[in-house]
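Pilot study result, target chain (141 residues):
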Amino acid sequence: MDELGRPEWLFANTVHDGCDGASYYYAEAEFATEYGSPKCLVKIGCRGPVVQCNVPKRGWIGGVGGCPNVGGICIGCTMQGFPDKIMPFMDEPPGGLLSPGAIKSYGAVIHHLRRLINNAVNEEPKWRHKRPMLTTGYRPH
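Predicted structure:
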């Protein structure tokens, strides 16, 4: 259990952590301007970066759902102060005006690092080839 008596496996991560669009678009500072967009919905009211809930990963019914993953915003329904501390819904969350500038520079660095890592690991190992002699890359002592 966490400090509020909730199961940690349900509340350890944020909605943002499990959102299909948030991980890429938020880091790139690409925010949706309308509902149903695949981009990060934080600028149109999504509280996902601060709401602790695993519904986007787990789904609601039969593994399907999670408000942001089906085009809606997270309104924080699993949080202790819901709804009073989260209202008004669909307004830009506190800090939403400041985040794009800071996120844009952070996102550029992350994007560059992702590209470097992708280039390093997205190639066949030297031992995997189509020559007659099979090799494994294993070198005994």
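One observation from the pilot: The chain has one domain: 8-109. A full batch analysis is planned for the follow-on phase.
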